[in-house]
């Protein structure tokens, strides 16, 4: 059994795995980096330790500077399942990117509503995505004005892949978290495979938070790309006129 675990340890090193919340785990030697899938850069990268004694351990440092430990429980069909002795921590299931089989999910409509309980917060408030790749949204810092952008084919395909991995159809209809100054979240999604409505009070589930962060990240990069393209076109036109 020990040799099997050693082989698993060696398989982890210098490889990239993902979990069901669309986080990437980049393993290298005795450390790993956890980041959101599809993001080239992230300010929320978490660096952990990979240890091998009698068992393989993943070690995180949480928000309270305490160490969270996960132990490898099983390796089955290319998936690795890590469990914690802390009953409040969910299991971590890792699988390789190339093992994801496309199930043909197509977005028909996706709506997100965010309602903070305090007025000074910033960020997205309402967002709607339709199957023609058109996005309409409002931000608090932009005086709630309606903004519109169209995602590129590659970004829209990434979004559909994100939803395939997250499997929102398996989520509960409502999540209630303790708190008093957070935000309430609503996700309404229609695909060719399922329709689902999810409510979260005070904060979103990690899967929903990663989805919102991915969409927000792509909104910014798509807008920057469009703005640079328009600037290039104007510059090229003026250059032709000048010459």
Automatic annotation (TrEMBL):
- Organism per entry: Winogradskyella pacifica
Report what the protein is called: Uncharacterized protein
Highest taxon above the source species: Bacteria
